[in-house]
């Protein structure tokens, strides 16, 4: 479901999210994921469906899935 890099220090994880089509979608997904404890940065790109998350530790996939579901999108798979 995720691709992770650099497990010492900040962790960068790239998620695929389906259904994003505009800047508003990017903002909604980014805003919701940024509320997960430990997340320091979120960048969503509607064109590719990729959401890059930087966090203090690896994230729980369920927490990310729940955040994405909350704003009406679907965590689609590994980026």
TrEMBL record:
InterPro entries this protein is in? HMA_dom, HMA_dom_sf
Q: State the coiled-coil residue ranges.
A: none
One Pfam family, short name please? HMA
What domain of life is recorded for the organism? Bacteria
HMA domain location is 11-76
Against PROSITE patterns, the record matches this protein to: HMA_2
The protein here is known as Heavy-metal-associated domain-containing protein
Naturally occurring in which organism (per UniProt): Streptomyces massasporeus
């Amino acid at each position: 479901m995720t691709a992770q890099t650099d497990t010492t220090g900040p962790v960068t994880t790239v998620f695929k999210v389906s259904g994003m089509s505009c800047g508003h979608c990017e903002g909604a997904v980014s805003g919701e994921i940024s509320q997960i404890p430990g997340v320091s940065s979120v960048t969503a790109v509607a064109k590719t469906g990729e959401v890059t998350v930087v966090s203090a530790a690896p994230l729980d996939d369920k927490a990310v899935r729940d955040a994405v579901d909350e704003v009406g999108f679907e965590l689609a798979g590994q980026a």
